[in-house]
Amino acid sequence: MSDDDERSFFSEAPMRPVAKAKMAAEKPHYLGHRDRLRERFAAAGPDALPDYELLELLLFRLIPRADTKPAAKALLARFGTLAEVLGAPVGLLQEVKGIGPTVALDLKVVAATAQRMARGEVQGREILASWTQLLAYCRSAMAFEEREQFRILFLDKKNALIADEVQQTGTVDHTPVYPREVVRRALELSATAIILVHNHPTTPISITLDHARYH
């Protein structure tokens, strides 16, 4: 083949967009899914999404270059609910595939923010009017603590929350309770009722609630 024929051959052959086709093939499949999920959230709000998709949205920011659906589903399978995922200790979160120390810590930052919001929702309201809300609040705060906690919610005469305090932290199956300290703190806060809460680390998400009223 002469030089002229060779130039003519290559000039007439169509150029394949190899690089472009390769880039399109290598585009991660989850990118379109992320866009669609964000659009659904923006259009219909959070109630339109199940827990795992809401958790996915959160993980998008924490894990920018991976498919977060498996991690979201694994977290919920391990801990049960979205509140309990956020309430889980950093060490347990890292046992879930795809969750490293940085992501686990970021989830705890979100958990702290959620707890502040939950406390704001019950602060100054008739807390005893909704035991379901109260139990959800306590679970998000302490259900997956690895040591037993003795927590006190101090109420006023209208059953509104004055303060929420952890009075004692014990071992995996025991925490000391000193009635004198409980009464002293209740008097300091002018509380007329208290709710005593303690968790059971040996049976995660198990919480005991007791109510007492002063006169």
Secondary-structure blueprint:
Layout (H helix, E strand, L loop, with lengths): L2 H10 L5 H9 L3 H15 L6 H12 L6 H11 L2 H6 L2 H4 L7 H22 L8 H12 L6 E7 L5 E9 L9 H10 L4 E7 L7 E7 L2
Antiparallel strand pairs: 1-2, 1-3, 3-4
Helix pairs in contact: 4-5, 8-9
How would you explain this protein's 3D organization?
There is one protein chain. The protein is α+β, with helices and mostly antiparallel strands and 215 residues long. Helix content is 52%, strand content 14%. The protein has a four-stranded antiparallel beta sheet, covered by helices on one side. A hairpin with a 7-residue loop joins strand 3 and strand 4. The chain is elongated. The N and C termini lie far apart (109 Å).
Comma- or semicolon-separated keywords:
single chain, 215 residues, alpha+beta, DNA polymerase, domain 1, Cytidine Deaminase, domain 2, 2 domains, 4-stranded antiparallel beta sheet, 10 helices, elongated, disordered N terminus
CATH architecture of the largest domain: Orthogonal Bundle
Sheet bearing the most strands, described?
4 strands, antiparallel
CATH class of the largest domain: Mainly Alpha
Whole-number count of domains:
2
In brief, what are we looking at here?
By secondary structure, the chain is α+β, with helices and mostly antiparallel strands.
